[in-house]
């Protein structure tokens, strides 16, 4: 765990899952992200992705996925324009390095790679960042799988698989997970991540906020004088967070009038009391 400084205004987003959907849905997601990156270019000094930007990413020595070329070019232009980029791998795109060597996203795009639990100081606020997978005491099974998937021997072995075949394998695994949850926010995961954030904020009064993704459900919860914010996603919500002038806000991208793909979301609850619905409290 380390402390980093991100100049404000700092923008945070997660869970676009590029490459996961039909061509029509992918086109809408890319167009929305292009508009968002234009917004960032005009206003931000740093941009932080909290994982699952891609539905599958694996660091090969000489191959990159061509389907993401336009998004990668836009991100590189942001970096060249002076916007500081940070990337925390999610459960779909954590293979961004080969051992300890910088990967493509670091070398060519300009990202600085984060780890779960890193703390970012932006605009005078101290924010702990997580993707959100594998946190909480009840997620022991997934944590064991996560350790296997991030084992160096397993990674080096998988590197012998052709990139096109690797993408197909990754897609099958991701599709199986989506079938299990019905492609909706999983209430148990939402609750587990929320409880983890509340416990950490109570144990760490020096933190101003915890930001996470993974659940695909935008959410804001006050914990004393601090806040837990889930960034939602760019499949159903097109939501993001901004630190500016010493304040933290959860916002919806201005041109995202409705979901790209249909979502059937359970009501988010904590402590027996209904939280704000996913769309309320989100600034346009």
SSE blueprint:
Layout: E1 3-5, E2 10-13, H1 23-43, E3 46-49, H2 69-80, E4 84-88, H3 104-109, E5 111-114, E6 119-122, E7 125-129, H4 140-149, H5 152-158, H6 163-181, H7 187-203, E8 209-212, E9 219-223, E10 226-230, E11 239-244, E12 247-252, E13 269-270, E14 273-274
Parallel strand pairs: 1-6, 2-3, 3-4, 4-5, 7-8, 8-10
Antiparallel strand pairs: 2-11, 6-7, 9-10, 11-12, 13-14
Folded structure, characterized:
By secondary structure, the protein is of the alpha/beta class. It contains seven helices and 14 strands. The chain starts with a strand and ends in a 10-residue tail after the last strand. Residues 262-281 have low confidence and may be disordered.
Give the helix proportion (percent range): 25-40%
| Integer-rounded radius of gyration | 18 Å
What pattern of helices and strands is seen along the backbone? Answer: EEHEHEHEEEHHHHEEEEEEE
- The number of E-state strands comes to 14
Mean pLDDT: 81
Strand order of the largest sheet: 1-6-7-8-10-9
Please identify the structural class as seen in this structure. Answer: alpha/beta
Q: Note the gap between the termini.
A: 33 Å
- Give the strand content: 15-25%
How many helices does DSSP assign?
7
User: Can you summarize the main beta sheet?
Assistant: 6 strands, mixed
Shape summary: globular
What are the low-pLDDT stretches, counting only 5+ consecutive residues below 50? 262-281
